[in-house]
């Protein structure tokens, strides 16, 4: 039986200005999954993420974390946030310290770890995100891509069980997007749960165990990463494209240029292997 | 970005322990200000400038530019000290230069020149001490020392976040300005004023947005009461301490030798 991390029931969120960002949303997130959240701009992805970290409180509905009702007192939020780390979309709103190493150590220091453990975690996180060479730089000397990696390192160093990333690859070049994919693969092997929002369907298709499609505050789809791309109406509604691997495979299958065996190819390599 | 800030991170003395640099700069500063002695000020200025230019390798041109910054205030202060005026009937000793018009005369006395020279030297020596500190020591290194000295955490956090936000706002303001300028927002005086107003108001909105986002981000990383970090690693060096002691002792000795009293 898969352990349930989050169970969201009938969650509605209305901002003070009256816009409803989430409408009666129900969702279960299992332990150890790689989940990609797709959706057009303004679909409510960031709002949903902020709920998972206890930053926002539901207008109606409930959120259970490991079977326990999320409470918004200091103590509960502290335990929640130790286990759920969130990397925000705009690194400038997350980074504030004098230099890179200090900023990365901010989270771990709040966890009351020993000095050695903090040092070890910070070193490790810097290596993973390739920012070790930048460690003495002040934040305002960094480029957007570098800031983004430092922001990820800051959460990585806290070693949370659930990793939430709001558009981690936005603003990064191909090399560093790939780098982040590798980091995500590595941390996932340590039995972590990863939830990320992205506009990159190609990446989501290749990487995710589950895909969630959101539009206008509602979940349109939650399931395996292949089925969703057969559903043209849904793709249109959520402004999604088909991943090129998927689309190419579809075309080749139609023209009988691809061996029709097993599941749809999910990556470039899998596709090339199936070519006749 | 701000050049003065950039040098603080990329100078040749950045690896020196901040406590050493702060002791050195602050001692010389306080000594020069307390004794207000011409020779002490001259030596302090020379020593600090040497450390800044030769030690930290800050370009001479940039350093001179920085020294000229307080020049305006200095000049306006000096003029009023140097030039005196009185009625022509007053006798004034040791006049170097005077001009009379009507019942009044403007004049400069030897004594005034002395006071003014002393003032200029004291000002130059003190700002050279402060420039030494700002040009060689990053803000976060100074804050690290202040933390060790048990300065109230609240004050340090305010300085720290203010420092970070200076750059966030400079950047935001620059982006808004560029966006406006590229759409011809600053072509005429009227448009210029209008665009500037828009820039300032959107910067204000940005302040609140940023502050809110930062609070959220800090909370989600487990912020409770104090901002804590692992400290940057600086090594104390015996050689540095010896150099600092020798310089300080020499200056004090010179002062005493030339008739000063402590």
TrEMBL record, chain A:
Matches recorded under SUPFAM superfamilies: P-loop containing nucleoside triphosphate hydrolases
Locations listed in the record: Cell membrane
One Gene Ontology term, aspect cellular component: ATP-binding cassette (ABC) transporter complex
Keywords associated with the record: ATP-binding, Cell membrane, Membrane, Nucleotide-binding, Translocase, Transport
Entry-linked Pfam families: ABC_tran
Membrane topology note: Peripheral membrane protein
Keyword Heme: no
Domain ABC transporter: 6-241
CDD domains in UniProt: ABC_cobalt_CbiO_domain1
Known function: Part of an ABC transporter complex. Responsible for energy coupling to the transport system. Probably part of an ABC transporter complex. Responsible for energy coupling to the transport system.
NCBIfam families in alphabetical order: cbiO (TIGR01166)
Protein name: ABC transporter ATP-binding protein
UniProtKB/TrEMBL annotation, chain B:
UniProt superkingdom: Bacteria
Cellular component terms per the entry's GO annotation: ATP-binding cassette (ABC) transporter complex
CDD domains noted in UniProt: EcfT (cd16914)
Intracellular or extracellular location(s): Cell membrane
Segments passing through the bilayer: 24-54, 66-88, 115-133, 154-177, 192-208, 238-258
Keyword terms, alphabetized: Cell membrane, Membrane, Transmembrane, Transmembrane helix
Pfam families attached to this UniProt entry: CbiQ
Main location: membrane
Annotated GO biological process: cobalt ion transport
Membrane topology: Multi-pass membrane protein
Protein name: Cobalt ECF transporter T component CbiQ
């Amino acid at each position: 039986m898969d352990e349930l991390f989050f169970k969201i029931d009938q969650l509605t969120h209305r901002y003070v200005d009256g816009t409803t960002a989430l409408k009666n949303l129900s969702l279960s997130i299992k332990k150890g999954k790689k989940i990609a959240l797709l959706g057009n701009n303004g679909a409510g992805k960031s709002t949903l993420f902020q709920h998972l970290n206890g930053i926002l409180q539901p207008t109606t509905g409930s959120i259970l974390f490991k079977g326990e009702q999320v409470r918004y007192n200091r103590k509960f939020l502290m335990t929640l946030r130790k286990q759920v780390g969130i990397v925000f979309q705009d690194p400038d709103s997350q980074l504030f310290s004098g230099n890179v190493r200090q900023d990365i150590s901010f989270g771990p220091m709040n966890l009351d770890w020993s000095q050695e453990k903090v040092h070890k975690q910070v070193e490790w996180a810097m290596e993973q995100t390739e920012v070790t060479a930048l460690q003495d730089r002040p934040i305002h000397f960094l480029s957007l891509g570098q800031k983004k990696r430092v922001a990820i390192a800051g959460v990585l160093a806290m070693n949370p069980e659930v990793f939430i990333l709001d558009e981690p690859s936005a603003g990064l070049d191909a090399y560093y997007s790939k780098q982040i994919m590798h980091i995500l693969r590595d941390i996932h092997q340590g039995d972590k749960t990863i939830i990320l929002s992205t506009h990159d369907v190609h990446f989501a298709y290749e990487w995710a165990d589950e895909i969630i499609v959101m539009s206008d505050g509602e979940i349109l789809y939650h399931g395996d990463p292949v089925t969703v791309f057969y559903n043209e109406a849904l793709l249109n509604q959520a402004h999604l494209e088909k991943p090129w691997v998927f689309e190419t495979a579809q075309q080749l299958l139609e023209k009988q240029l691809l061996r029709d065996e097993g599941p749809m190819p999910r990556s470039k390599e899998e596709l090339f292997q199936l070519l006749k | 970005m701000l050049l003065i800030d950039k040098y603080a991170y990329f100078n040749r003395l950045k690896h020196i322990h901040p406590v050493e640099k702060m002791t050195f700069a602050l001692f010389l500063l306080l000594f020069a200000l307390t004794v207000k002695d011409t020779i002490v000020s001259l030596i302090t200025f020379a020593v600090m400038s040497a450390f800044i230019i030769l030690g930290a390798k800050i370009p001479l041109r940039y350093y001179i530019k920085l020294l000229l910054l307080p020049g305006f205030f200095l000049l306006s202060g000096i003029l009023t000290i140097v030039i005196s005026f009185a009625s022509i009937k007053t006798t004034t000793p040791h006049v170097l230069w005077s001009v009379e018009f009507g019942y009044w005369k403007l004049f400069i006395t030897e004594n005034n020149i002395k006071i003014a020279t002393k003032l200029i030297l004291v000002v130059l020596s003190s700002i050279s001490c402060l420039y030494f500190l700002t040009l060689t020591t990053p803000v976060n290194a100074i804050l690290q020392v202040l933390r060790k000295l048990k300065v109230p955490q609240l004050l340090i956090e305010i300085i720290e976040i203010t420092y970070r936000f200076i750059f966030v706002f400079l950047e935001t303001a620059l982006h808004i300005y560029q966006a406006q300028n590229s759409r011809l927002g600053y072509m005429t005086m009227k448009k210029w004023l209008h665009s500037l107003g828009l820039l300032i108001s959107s910067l204000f909105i940005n302040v609140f947005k940023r502050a809110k986002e930062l609070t959220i981000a800090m909370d989600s990383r487990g912020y409770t009461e104090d901002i804590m970090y692992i400290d940057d690693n600086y090594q104390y060096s015996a050689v540095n301490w010896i150099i600092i002691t020798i310089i300080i002792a020499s200056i004090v000795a010179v002062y005493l030798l030339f008739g000063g009293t402590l």
